[in-house]
Design a protein that fits this description.
8 helices, 4-stranded antiparallel β-sheet, alpha+beta
Length: 212
């Protein structure tokens, strides 16, 4: 054991210098894993649309309660988009969507959920929908169809009747370059994980040597 914490830190830093090959090797391995994770997955473009959820003001509700109700409604609709019921409406819409999903129910659900992502801003009641596809035009078309189906058939899911209006407020904004998988995120994550893993290995060796 060490008599002083500072002495222990200095010894550990010196120990790292002698084991830097382990650190370098760990970082390289994780960088390669991050790179492989990027290249084995198909490159996909993203397209984002926004819809505004308008809820008529109920005079019997205070502002806080109304805001919470709007937030809950937005979250519910956000979750609905991932369901099989909503997917069927998108698939059977009068738009020529070319994406092909697996025939297995379980795999089809997983594939559909990977093709989209949603987020809700409770302060503005704006629901953002992002669609992904290997084809740039198909990603844009899918995002537009989802917004259209939500606006025209959303009453089936919120139960608010004419008191709730779902209105697209932004046209599809499509990326110029593939956004998934994210090379920078994967490489950066590999760099960090490799460094941390290398440090843990060195610390284990250090602890084993000096605490016998």
């Amino acid at each position: 054991m060490f008599d002083h914490p500072k002495s222990g830190i200095n010894n550990f830093l010196s120990f790292i210098k002698g084991k830097k090959i382990i650190l370098i090797f760990s970082v390289v391995i994780f960088l390669l894993l991050g790179f492989l994770l990027t290249i084995i997955k198909p490159l996909e473009y993203s397209s984002k649309v926004s819809v505004l959820i308008i809820q008529k003001i109920n005079p019997n509700l205070d502002a806080y309660t109304a805001a919470r109700a709007a937030e809950k409604l937005g979250k519910n609709l956000s979750s609905v988009i991932y369901t099989t019921s909503f997917f069927d409406k998108v698939r059977h819409s009068n738009f020529d969507l070319k994406f092909n999903l697996p025939t297995s129910e379980r795999q089809r659900r997983q594939a559909w959920q990977r093709k989209i992502s949603t987020s809700i801003n409770p302060d503005t009641s704006i629901l953002e929908i992002t669609a992904y596809d290997k084809d740039k035009k198909e990603a844009e078309k899918l995002a537009q169809v989802i917004a259209y189906v939500l606006a025209t058939e959303g009453q089936e899911y919120h139960g608010g009747g004419d008191d709730i209006v779902i209105k697209p407020v932004n046209t599809a904004l499509t990326s110029n370059y593939p956004t998934r998988p994210n090379l920078l995120v994967n490489i950066g994550g590999g760099l960090i994980l490799g460094f941390v893993f290398g440090i843990l290995i060195i610390f284990w060796q250090f602890n084993k040597k000096f605490n016998k």
